[in-house]
Amino acid sequence: MAESTRADTADAVVIGGGTVGGWCAWSLRRAGLEHVVLVERLTLGRGASSRAAGMVRAQGGTPWTVTLGLFSRDFYLRQKEELGIDSGFVPMGYYMPAFTEEQARIGRARVAMQQGLGLEVSWIEPDEAAELYPAMAHGSTLGGSYAPGDGYIDPPRNVLAYTAALVRAGVDLRERTEFMGLAYSSDGSRITGVDTSTGPIATERVVLTGGPDLASVGARAGITIAAGGTRHQVAVTEPVDDFTPDQIGMVFDVAEGIYWRPEEGGVLFGMSNPDEAPGPAREVDWPYMTKVRERIAELLPIASTLGLRRVWAATIDYTPDHLPILGPGRAPDGRAVGGVTVASAGGHGMMWGPAVARIAADLCLSGGTDVIDVSELGLDRFDAEGRSRLDPDPIALPFPEDTTLRERTSRP
User: Fold this and answer.
1) Which segments within 102-166 are labelled E, that is strand?
2) Which of 118, 209, 247, 287 could form a disulfide with 20 if both were Cys (CB 3.0 to 4.6 A apart)?
3) 251 contacts 136 by C-beta, under 8 angstroms
4) Which fold has domain 92-149+229-318?
């Protein structure tokens, strides 16, 4: 690790050592920048990145999110060849069932959109679903969308993968170093440096990440960022005796915001409570956990007989429209601040993280990217209360419906 008490210079500084920040710093170094500094308040992956469920899907609800998912999924698939280490991606297929005729109509239209973008996905009928997933309650769905290439990663292994990649690439890691703010040019039009708890770093480029802490990172930079944090809960059951992992499958009950997948011989399931106020996670909400288990038992009867082996709560980030934030930092008057890029995966760090990281690196270097058109995904889509002019992505966990983000400066 470089000496952190000296005033030094960097070609770019990335704030935040989660999935987005880690892969962004690696991308910047790989693009040719000689001195890239990554500043992390705690240690790499200490926040949501190491506590996620690891779901990775390209079955997004908008063209943006389908493309982000495809890019990230492909990135995970080629990691071993490129890096010598991977994030443990398992492509086992993902099923999103419909339970009403309206859900089926919307789902079929979504499949057509996804197919038009090159995703291998299809609508499967109830009998096909029953054959594919015999552990599910027979006759419980009206069919649903299925993408065989979707899957999941191992979140702690992902942190290990990007840590190894950062070290091998020669990124200057500054763990246990707090971001304090930005230094600006005399006219305030662009940045000239980053202030940290261990000293200033002169630079003309900075990428602000931070997951559920991103709004407070922005506040220190004088930039309002419409992003928040909320409790997300995950549980893992004891092993299943009667069904294989493939027969349990990966399933997302979109309407209820509940998902499950195999894990260590048992079933991993997760959820967020839309009625809960935004804010950092502190403990498991057992009443809501019980409610979710009742719903899962209706769809996956074996789950009703399984004890819980591990349960945890973590703070996950979200944006009011469930879409990523990718664009320049903006001053209070709306002007873009030269040299500042803001990057948020909107609660989908595992799913979109590599794509969001790559786009953020592209924007940092040249102001543009060829991954997706991000012209509508910047901070200027939000009003002063955090309301977005964009329709929300319909395939997302039910994050808090408080779009004013009153808790935007809470820190987990």
Assistant:
1) 122-124, 144-147, 151-152
2) 209
3) yes
4) D-Amino Acid Oxidase; Chain A, domain 2 (3.30.9)
